[in-house]
Amino acid sequence: xxxxxxRAIVEDHERVRMGVSRVLEGExxxxxxxxxxxxxxxxxxxxxxxxxxxxxxxxxxxxLDKLQRLLxxxxxxxxxxxxxxxxxQAAQQPLAHTQP
Length: 100
Description:
Layout: E1 5-10, H1 14-25, E2 30-36, H2 39-49, E3 52-55, H3 59-92
Parallel strand pairs: 1-2, 1-3
């Protein structure tokens, strides 16, 4: 008989981990040895259980979050530069005189 593949689920969203766990528990030939919320926990689990890691694409979420923060920073910097440019242009324009 073939030995079951030992798997660990690595996912930062608890509900996703629960769903993947339910799916894997129903699979023959796969033995779920644990779950981890992040990479550090996954490495600890893998060392303890000597398991192959099952990592979801959701790990990309972390990278996408970082990219989104960078884009927000860029947008913020762009808005600051636009405000500075508008202030400079306003300072260079002569003041309109109002007649009494």
